[in-house]
Amino acid sequence: MGGIFGRSIEQFKSFMDYRVFRQEIIASNVANTDTPGYKARDVSFEKQLDGQMKMQQTHSDHLPVSQTGPAFDTFEEPYTHIGNDSNTVDMDREMMKLAQNQLLYDVAAQSVRGKLQRLKTVITEMR
Q1: Which of 81, 102, 110, 127 is deepest in the core (most CB within 10 A)?
Q2: What one-character DSSP code corresponds to residue 29?
Q3: What is the pLDDT of residues 8-60, one digit of tens each?
Q4: C-beta of residue 75 within 8 angstroms of C-beta of residue 41
């Protein structure tokens, strides 16, 4: 997405997609807090960051760059406490991650709203 929106809207969308996916993983952990043998999972931020640092083909003679959609890698959290039933969900930790994730999503949404509001102001002032 280019033009008047620049690349920032696309980057915010990707960031917000990551936050929504992470919210689903955290919610799954919370939902399985009493499931014997359940292993808590999280999402790799490094994979998301690598996706933001994609190479771009700047000349037609360069090798093409594959443009795949966002891919999020999940992993089992290695440092969680294992209960008597081998469940590794730590509710305090999950609630902290849930609040942090929500806050970061809200910041991105507010930034997009601000950018769109500024564009709206420019458009209405031109009339």
Answers
A1: 102
A2: H
A3: 788 888 889 999 999 999 999 999 999 998 999 999 876 555 555 455 556 66
A4: yes
